[in-house]
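1st attempt posting a full record on here, be nice pls
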Amino acid sequence: MKTRSQTTPKPLNTVRLPPVESPRSRPRPKPKPRPETRKKGTLGDLRRPKKPPTAFFYFMEDFRKTYQEENPSVKAMQDVGKACGEKWNKMAFEEKVKYYDLATERRAEFEKAMAQYNKKKINGELSEESE
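the predicted structure (as tokens):
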């Protein structure tokens, strides 16, 4: 009698799968061209009013001055920014109010300037040829 190791194994019933395409052999789809919104080198309308900063940025201006006076050895803006963010997050709303008020005032000025700019643009007073 033969032992198991001496007999030849029976072939398994296998199923043949279709060949798989490799990602490299597949043709790549061509990228769609992006629509040009602006020509390179143009910056848009330079006469348009600039958006005002938020309350945090007004706080940051004040904080930077005092932080530099207190810590003259710190030169990295990253460290100053981190300290400023931590202080802003720890501040009570009552302390932040003056910065929010300042930002609201500047935002109102921006809204007025933007309304004037749009009115001039609609009336044709701002033309592209005058640049």
